[in-house]
Write a structure and sequence with these properties.
The chain is built from eight helices and twelve strands. The chain has a single domain, classed as endopeptidase domain like (from Nostoc punctiforme) (endopeptidase fold (from Nostoc punctiforme)). The protein is of the alpha+beta class. Strand 7 and strand 8 form a beta hairpin. It has a six-stranded antiparallel β-sheet. It comes from Variovorax guangxiensis.
């Protein structure tokens, strides 16, 4: 390995150690040699993504979003992720989501108008029967209270579990470590109230098509993002989610050398 590539590898390893991103070795398709695949949050139109219209969506699609608010920024900062909210598409232009006022249903157009970014993923195993059960259950939950305690408990859990995601830790060991932290830190979280990603995962459970075998109370929007194809999940998915496209994308602001904000 030449000095430049060696330096690059060292920098990558150091960055991974500092951030505690999940990683795994995979065999390269080009030369057959093992390579380190590191968890990534980078996805945007022009970087392996595309812009789509709401008409492309199908019932059961999972929408991950972010909005330009302090709360959203705090979630994204705490989870090292570009997303802070999860929404369930029900079909016919309708979505369901768990927010501070409780579970609600609204139009997809409202989501796209209000959010800064909206990206869609699809479970590859969903069929019409799953989608119908998912929709019926989700709509029956409208008005259910928000799981505020679950969110408050999840914040330190997200940070503390980073130790489970250090490089080169095997998947089974990572999962065992995560379960240990979860049982200690999330025991008081409720399963009859919902925060956003918990609601999405419980809907899939009720439809008979679990996205993951992990307890929905453990899972953040960032975890759902990393369950996509080609990424390294912190919490394993039963099947990797397929990227559908971005319904909306506003690139983050760029800070220039003189401190000004540019786009």
């Amino acid at each position: 390995m030449n000095p430049a590539r060696r330096l690059g590898a060292i920098v990558l390893l150091a960055a991974t150690l500092l951030t505690g991103c999940a990683s795994r070795f995979e065999r390269s398709e080009t030369d057959g040699l093992p390579r380190l695949n590191v968890q990534s949050s980078a996805i945007a139109p022009g970087n392996g993504g595309e812009l789509i219209a709401p008409a492309v969506l199908e019932p059961g699609d999972i929408l991950l979003t972010s909005v330009a608010t302090l709360g959203s920024f705090g979630i994204r900062l705490g989870t090292f992720s570009p997303v802070s909210h999860a929404v369930l598409y029900l079909g016919d232009g309708q979505v369901a989501e768990a927010v501070g006022d409780g579970v609600r249903a609204r139009r997809i157009e409202d989501v796209v108008a209000e959010e800064q970014m909206v990206v869609a993923f699809r479970h590859p195993g969903i069929d019409a029967a799953h989608a119908e059960r998912l929709r019926d259950w989700a709509l029956a939950q409208v008005g259910t209270r928000y799981n505020t305690v679950g969110v408050l408990l999840n914040a330190p859990f997200v940070l503390n579990r980073r130790v489970c995601e250090l490089p080169l830790i095997p998947g089974p060991a990572r999962e065992f470590c995560l379960r240990g932290f979860a049982m200690v830190q999330l025991g008081a979280s409720r399963d009859d109230q919902f925060f956003c990603s918990q609601f999405v995962l419980e809907a899939y459970n009720q439809a008979g098509l679990p996205v993951t075998t992990a307890d929905p109370r453990w899972v953040s929007p960032a975890d759902l993002l990393h369950m996509r194809e080609g990424d390294v999940p912190s919490i394993p998915a039963t099947q990797p989610l397929r990227y559908v496209g971005h319904l909306k994308y506003n690139p983050p602001p760029v800070i220039t050398a003189d401190g000004a904000v540019a786009r």
